[in-house]
Amino acid sequence: MRMLAIETSCDETAASVAATGPRILSSAVYSQIDRHRPYGGVVPEIASRDHLRKLPSILEQALRDADCGWGDIDALAVTRGPGLASSLLVGLSAAWGLKLRLGVPLYGVNHLEAHLLSTFLPENAPDPEEACPMLTLLVSGGHTALVRVDGPGAYRVLGRTLDDAAGEALDKGATLMGLGYPGGPAIERAARGGDPHALAFPLGRGGERSQPSGSLDPRLCFSFSGLKTSLLYRLRDDPGLARGDALKDLAASYEYAVCEALALRVERACREPSIRSLACSGGVARNRRLRARLEQIAAEAGRPVCHAPPEYCTDNAAMIAGAALSGIERDAAVRDPQDIDPVLGVE
């Protein structure tokens, strides 16, 4: 089977062709970062219009790179949530039109599930049956969660953020430091050569101050609102921290606080004897400090670590195709051209 997947949940326009396995044959991505940088964040109206403008050429590129034509496609997959409603509709509308034109089935994929399974995309990735139960740190956009992955379609959220996500904390921090958007890469660049222990920032108390809903363990939950407030007050009292060499130490200390807040919860959850491996996925998973820290935790726990490759951390359609081909599609056939869910989660 050859599947063509579409991803337009936020500000990346992406398409991918994959074969049963899953085996990724192509992955075409257009990033809108330059379009949104002047505004310090994603503008939904601009995002959806840019998807409309770029998706046709991205689809053609994905087919061309996979050395196949429209007649070679056996099935379609598309992100149905979570994400920006207007952006999701662009992708689903295009996929629905292709479904009618090609006469092939169309499957809706949960964007977060696709991130969770992105660790299995590389050719040298571990077999899910051997790697699971896997403890995955999901740090994608507005989402931060610790998830136990027992296999494709089988997940249990152990902890999540009670306020802001790690990515949001990095974006806001970069704005306060005058580093621009997107915040994660900007802070990582500014932190080079800085002292991560120069300034002490709170590591987030998770459920210690407010109780999470449901059966979540308060000790495995995150909180980043206090970290952002601490940075705001520091810069208010000493604006010089964001200038010259002092900025390196400020950025390094802030980056350390975000990464350590994540790592401490992973370290705690890793004590569960049934966990066989660790993984990290989502845009923030590209951060070198975070990856190194998680590798340290995995080594100390005697477990392998399975990072998603950098090219599959940020939004892409290869992970959408991979998730669909991994079996999620069995109950996810799209029957409505408006079947999106902007607040879709993982349970």
From TrEMBL:
This is tRNA N6-adenosine threonylcarbamoyltransferase. It catalyses: L-threonylcarbamoyladenylate + adenosine(37) in tRNA = N(6)-L-threonylcarbamoyladenosine(37) in tRNA + AMP + H(+). GO terms for molecular function: iron ion binding; tRNA N(6)-L-threonylcarbamoyladenine synthase activity. It is found in: Cytoplasm. GO terms for biological process: tRNA threonylcarbamoyladenosine modification. InterPro entries: ATPase_NBD, Gcp-like_dom, KAE1/TsaD, TsaD. The gene is gcp. GO terms for cellular component: cytoplasm. It comes from Kiritimatiella glycovorans. Keywords: Acyltransferase, Cytoplasm, Iron, Metal-binding, Transferase, tRNA processing. Substrate binds at L138, V139, S140, G141, G142, D171, G184, E188, N287. Pfam families: TsaD.
